TrEMBL record:
A GO MF label: ATP binding
One of the protein's GO biological processes: protein O-linked glycosylation
Keyword Secreted: no
Topology in the lipid bilayer: Single-pass membrane protein
Classification via PANTHER family: PROTEIN O-MANNOSE KINASE
Taxonomic source organism: Ciona intestinalis (Transparent sea squirt)
Protein name in the entry: Serine-threonine/tyrosine-protein kinase catalytic domain-containing protein
Sequence intervals crossing the membrane: 15-34
Serine-threonine/tyrosine-protein kinase catalytic domain mapped to chain residues: 98-192
């Protein structure tokens, strides 16, 4: 029995060693990738805008200055609404036009299984506090009718972009660049002062890719923020609201 115990322990130690070597390899790879970005960034098309606005402001397409976020009144009087273009688990998306510029309008879906109000509040709160080049811009929201507006990105989600006919998406350099951009966004989420934010609804590849949008200058930014639990570094486990099954399930939520 003693021998057996000893054997299994050394196997465990072996496994630990392999894991550490793997981590080190990943670390070296990430460092190499990040070091190689400045020259890649120089090759990128110029972005349409540079969001440098305060958190309660936005600036899209050809705007020359930042504008305060729109509230219910402005939304109902100044935004024309068009057709629907997407429907998810918690919201449906509609085209909108504000002062000649296309925007995306998100409506909460009323449902018995989903707490619409809590989802809406969480989404808008997250959008508001995370405003940065790593997430989609918030343009306006209206609490009473549970709608919010974000910047419209015509390339669509990362899933749509990777499966599109755009010639560039089959290019290995472009794919690596997208992966680095995705890592930068993850790093932003994982490196918040209060801890790490984890993107839920990532339990299968398609779902994971659909949480992100591709901007006109081909950056990967987070769009879906209604389930973004905070994980502190002292052993608190990730708890998602809607996760049911999929290939990338967290073990503890099975
Ligand atoms: C900005 O673009 C919109 C269409 O996207 C157009 O209607 C508007 O006139 C443009 N404004 C300026 C100042 O170029
Ligand atoms: C909308 O609801 C959010 C979350 O409940 C709240 O923090 C915010 O103050 C409300 N905003 C307005 C304009 O009513
Ligand atoms: C994490 O954030 C801190 C504080 O904002 C910053 O100093 C640090 O460089 C960031 N780390 C990474 C890996 O980006």
């Amino acid at each position: 029995i003693k021998k057996k115990k000893h054997k299994s322990r050394s196997k465990k130690e072996d496994a630990n060693l392999y894991f550490i070597i793997l981590l080190a390899a990943v670390f070296v790879l990430v460092v190499l990738i990040f070091r190689s970005t400045p020259s890649e960034v120089a090759n990128l098309p110029k972005p349409d805008f540079r969001p440098s606005c305060a958190k309660n402001e936005f600036r899209i397409i050809n705007m020359t200055s930042c504008h305060e976020i729109l509230y219910c009144d402005a939304i109902f009087h100044n935004v024309e609404k068009g057709s629907y273009f997407n429907k998810g688990k918690t919201k449906k998306m509609q085209y909108g036009v504000w002062e000649g510029r296309r925007v995306a309008v998100a409506h909460s879906i009323t449902s018995k299984v989903i707490n619409t109000k809590a989802d809406f509040n969480e989404h808008v709160t997250n959008l508001f506090r995370l405003q940065s080049p790593f997430v989609t811009q918030l343009i306006g929201f209206c609490n009473v009718s549970r709608i919010f507006f974000t910047e419209y990105h015509k390339r669509g989600s990362l899933d749509t972009y990777l499966n599109s006919n755009e010639h560039i998406t089959s290019d290995a350099t472009e794919r690596l660049r997208l992966a680095v951009s995705y890592l930068k966004t993850l790093n932003f989420l994982h490196n918040q002062t209060e801890g790490s934010l984890v993107v839920c609804d990532s339990n299968d590849l398609k779902g994971a890719l659909q949480n992100y949008l591709v901007t006109s200058d081909r950056r990967v930014i987070l769009n879906d923020m209604d389930d973004l639990p905070l994980v502190n570094r002292y052993g608190k486990l990730i708890q998602c609201k809607h996760q049911v099954n999929g290939d990338f399930m967290f073990k503890q939520s099975r």
